[in-house]
UniProtKB/TrEMBL annotation:
Listed name of the protein: Large ribosomal subunit protein uL11m
GO BP terms, alphabetized: translation
CDD domains: Ribosomal_L11 (cd00349)
Pfam families for the chain: Ribosomal_L11_N
């Protein structure tokens, strides 16, 4: 059961957006710009934060991102590591 504080601090969610973006390559161009722009989210804040979080990976590594957009035009996001199939294809030389 949720506590009273958790209930009062919940923000209404506008959408959940899932994207695959190259590490360190988030720009306000497609696919990031249109996906976040329709919910009026701050594109540059997302790009800077995403690029900072993924700088430890090699460039052009596909990263899965789940963005939770709230109705007050704020967002939170989680970055997942690249898929195992991407690592296998890379090891095979494809």
């Amino acid at each position: 059961m949720a506590t009273l504080k958790e209930i009062l601090t919940r923000r209404p969610v506008a959408a959940t957006i899932r994207l695959t973006v190259p590490s360190g390559g988030a720009r306000p161009a497609p696919p990031v710009g249109p996906a976040l722009g329709q919910y009026r989210l701050n594109l540059m804040a997302f790009c800077k934060d995403f690029n900072a979080r993924t700088q430890k990976y090699k460039p052009d590594t596909p990263m899965s991102v789940t963005i939770t957009a709230f109705k007050d035009n704020t967002f939170e996001f989680t970055v997942k590591s690249p898929s195992v199939t991407w690592y296998l294809k890379k090891a095979a030389g494809n």
